[in-house]
């Protein structure tokens, strides 16, 4: 029975990590539903981007208030994880404050964690106020109703409670140390916890131990639960921001990809030696390649990774000229819709032994309307604004390609513009022979 | 209209067995749009002043296909691109200058993948280069005391990181440069990009160009400068929507330079 807590801890830890691993596998499977894309180029530039944008948070601080607050929570999260390592080892080994022999270094570490924890609490409260009291525009757009709103607040509550548990645990420990309780040897500095101590004043030693143990267990179980909450939440960005900034755009923003499938056909069409009646060389049982995207499987896997990476901050949408002028387009919604549809496809696969069976729905029209797609000015403001290198514009363009090339469903005015180009080499109905008239006018 | 411009076509260069220093890609707007034609003329006046031996394609030029590509018609874009590339490669063109950031972007970034590799510059970059090399001098104080705000075209600025040349050119005129709140990387679009120029906007509560000109007017300018024929149209219409067309003019950087030299 002596080892019961160790065993319970080990089981909880394994279950937490195991369940998370299962979700990661599902995530990887869903992302791989996307088309292949070559991102093996410019490795050193890609590593630099990841270091600068994800690790270094350079794009977050473009908006200083939210940016600095975010850096606090981010640094707090990473550094306090050193403490989580000690907690896990203590849990498995049945020790108490395993790292305390580090002495002064340990005191410094615990002291810093406490200060960071307090700063995280302050930042989280400010974030909550921005979302719920000040109601900053980008947090209350139509796509933020329901689960996205709940999710945003839920993350803040969890972080708040976890930090509070950490500080409570320390405060009770500190009090027990001062009472000279068994096992609670002098270790650590408690610059913040000491202010919680008066609240515990008058508690007996067993009660204090109960408080300390409860806080300890809830803290670590809370962390394991939070880890597993990630998959169901926009909070996945804490992991995926790293690969996403690595695989993100490195070409000039204005450069759209040239569709290879189209090049093949155009070259064949324009080749004077091509025999128009020749039988196609390719295997004619193969399905002809679809132009553009009408569903998530038509997008590439980096675009799908981005959909899971999006943390719904809405910086893209707040910079979007279409959205700012009251149009339905919201680049954030493009990413959220892509993710939600991909999740839906994943669930269908789960229910059908890993096979996708059409549910009669698709990303186009069922999630993203044509009105949204046609409102885009392709100005790249959304791409520039994203703190984790997401490119919503590339998805919009893929879907426009499907509409135009597979469905001939462009707005009439655009069809006129395109037939002008076809007929006379200009988007307006002017004669190509008049192209030089401007010189003499 | 005014004095004769010196403009030679590639065919004429070929007939003489010569190569131009640079090809001026006029673009569909620069060739046909009444307002944009003035920009083409102003730019050519500067080229003539600097004695640049340039060529145009004239009636052989055709749409780059850029707008078709942004609209989603990759097919039409590649047809245009491959046709243009055959022509350009046939003439052994090495260097291209254009007043249209959309042509600039697609020629520079998207044509290479289809076999068209050229050194492509925007006219503001090229004019800056001419000044730096001492081939073009900008003198006089015609714009002294004028407040100019520069609107960054998306496909020049954000998309290709060309922010300084147009500003440096404007500074040569001794005008007072004022920046809008959203400029350079965070500049707001004029509303014409992504083929919006050719269609009615979707339902909303304002037009993008009206919002952008609002930002420009907040700087109390005499002139809104830009470097794109489409931005020019949108900003001009935006000024009218704010009923400021009597006090604020929209001009291309090339026009401002040409005006400053009395060209």
Would you write up a description of this structure?
The complex is a heterodimer of chains A (441) and B (263). With 441 residues, chain A is mostly helical. Chain A folds into 2 domains: 4-239; 258-270 and 287-430, Fumarate Reductase Iron-sulfur Protein, Chain B, domain 2 (Orthogonal Bundle), CATH 1.10.1060. Chain A has helices at 4-31, 43-55, 64-93, 104-132, 147-179, 197-200, 205-229, 237-247, 260-270, 301-309, 315-319, 321-324, 331-351, 363-366, 370-374, 381-385, 392-406, 412-424. The radius of gyration of chain A is 28 Å and the shape is elongated. In chain A, 39% of the residues are buried. The model of chain A has no long low-confidence stretch (mean pLDDT 94). Chain B is an alpha/beta fold. Chain B is built from 11 helices and 9 strands. In chain B, the strands form 2 sheets. In chain B, strands 1-3-2-4-5 form a 5-stranded parallel β-sheet. In chain B, helix 9 (208-217) crosses helix 10 (229-241). Chain B starts with 7 loop residues before the first strand and ends with a helix. The interface between A and B is large, with 69 and 73 residues.
Short description, anyone?
The complex is a heterodimer of chains A (441) and B (263). Chain A has 18 helices and no strands. Chain A has helices spanning 4-31, 43-55, 64-93, 104-132, 147-179, 197-200, 205-229, 237-247, 260-270, 301-309, 315-319, 321-324, 331-351, 363-366, 370-374, 381-385, 392-406, 412-424.
CATH class of the largest domain in chain B: Alpha Beta
Shape by Cα distribution of chain A: elongated
Q: Sketch the major β-sheet of chain A.
A: none
Low-confidence stretches of chain B: none
Strand order of the largest sheet of chain B: 1-3-2-4-5
- Unreliable residue runs of chain A: none
Structural class by secondary-structure content of chain A: mainly alpha
H/E element string of chain A? HHHHHHHHHHHHHHHHHH
Strand content of chain B: 5-15%
């Amino acid at each position: 029975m002596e080892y019961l807590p160790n065993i319970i801890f080990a089981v909880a830890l394994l279950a937490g990590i195991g369940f998370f691993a299962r979700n990661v596998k599902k995530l990887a499977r869903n992302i791989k539903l996307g088309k292949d894309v070559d991102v093996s180029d410019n490795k050193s530039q890609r590593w630099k981007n990841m270091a600068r944008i994800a690790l270094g948070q350079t794009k977050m601080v473009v908006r200083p208030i939210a940016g600095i607050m975010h850096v606090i929570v981010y640094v707090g999260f990473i550094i306090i994880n050193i403490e989580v390592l000690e907690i896990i080892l203590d849990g498995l080994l049945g020790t108490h404050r395993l790292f305390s022999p580090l002495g002064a270094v340990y005191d410094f570490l615990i002291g810093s964690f406490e200060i960071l924890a307090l700063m995280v609490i302050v930042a989280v409260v400010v974030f909550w106020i921005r979302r719920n009291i000040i109601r900053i525009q980008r947090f209350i757009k139509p796509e933020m109703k329901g689960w996205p709103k709940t999710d945003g607040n839920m993350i803040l509550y969890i972080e708040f409670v976890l930090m509070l548990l950490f500080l409570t645990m320390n405060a009770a420990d500190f009090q027990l140390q001062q009472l000279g309780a068994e096992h609670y040897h002098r270790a650590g500095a408690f610059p913040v916890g000491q202010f919680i101590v008066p609240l515990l004043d008058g508690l007996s030693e067993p009660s204090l131990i109960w408080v300390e143990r409860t806080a300890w267990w809830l803290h670590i179980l809370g962390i394991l639960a939070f880890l597993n909450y990630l998959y169901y939440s926009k909070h996945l960005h804490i992991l995926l921001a790293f690969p996403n900034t690595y695989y993100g755009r490195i070409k000039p923003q204005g450069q759209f990809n040239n569709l290879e499938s189209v090049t093949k056909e155009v070259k064949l069409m324009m080749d004077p030696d091509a025999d128009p009646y020749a039988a196609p060389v390719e295997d004619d049982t193969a399905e002809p390649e679809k132009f553009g995207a009408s569903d998530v499987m038509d997008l590439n896997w980096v675009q799908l990774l981005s959909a899971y990476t999006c943390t719904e901050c809405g910086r893209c949408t707040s910079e979007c000229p279409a959205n700012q002028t009251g149009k339905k387009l919201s680049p954030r919604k493009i990413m959220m819709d892509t993710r939600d549809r991909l999740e839906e496809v994943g669930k269908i696969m789960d229910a059908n032994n890993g096979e996708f069976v059409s549910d009669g729905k698709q990303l186009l029209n069922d999630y993203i309307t044509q009105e949204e797609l046609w409102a885009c000015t392709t100005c790249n403001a959304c791409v520039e604004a994203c703190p984790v290198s997401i490119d919503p514009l590339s998805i919009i363009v893929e879907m426009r390609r499907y509409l135009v090339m597979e469905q001939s469903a462009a707005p009439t005015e655009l069809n006129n513009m395109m037939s002008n180009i076809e007929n006379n080499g200009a988007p307006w109905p002017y004669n190509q022979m008049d192209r030089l008239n401007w010189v003499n006018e | 209209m005014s004095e004769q411009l010196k403009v030679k076509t590639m065919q004429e260069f070929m007939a003489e067995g010569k190569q131009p220093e640079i090809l001026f890609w006029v673009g569909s707007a620069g060739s046909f749009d009444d307002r944009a034609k003035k920009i083409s003329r102003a730019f050519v006046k500067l080229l003539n002043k600097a004695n640049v031996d340039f060529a145009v394609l004239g009636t052989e030029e055709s749409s780059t296909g850029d707008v078709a590509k942004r609209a989603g018609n990759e097919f039409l874009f590649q047809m245009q691109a491959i046709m243009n590339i055959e022509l350009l490669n046939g003439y052994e063109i090495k260097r291209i200058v254009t007043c249209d950031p959309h042509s600039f972007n697609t020629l520079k970034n998207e044509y290479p993948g289809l076999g068209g590799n050229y050194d492509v510059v925007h006219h503001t970059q090229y004019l800056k280069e001419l000044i730096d090399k001492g081939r073009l001098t900008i003198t006089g104080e015609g714009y002294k005391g004028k407040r100019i705000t520069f609107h960054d075209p998306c496909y020049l600025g954000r998309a290709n990181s060309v922010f300084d040349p147009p500003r440096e050119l404007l500074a040569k005129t001794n005008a007072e440069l004022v920046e809008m709140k959203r400029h350079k990387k965070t500049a707001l679009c004029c509303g014409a990009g992504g083929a919006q120029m050719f269609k009615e906007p979707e339902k909303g509560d304002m037009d993008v160009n009206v919002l952008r000109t609002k930002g420009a007017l907040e700087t109390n300018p005499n002139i809104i400068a830009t470097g794109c024929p489409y931005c020019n149209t949108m900003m001009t219409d935006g000024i009218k929507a704010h009923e400021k067309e009597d006090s604020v003019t929209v001009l291309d950087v090339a026009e401002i330079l040409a005006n400053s030299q009395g060209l």
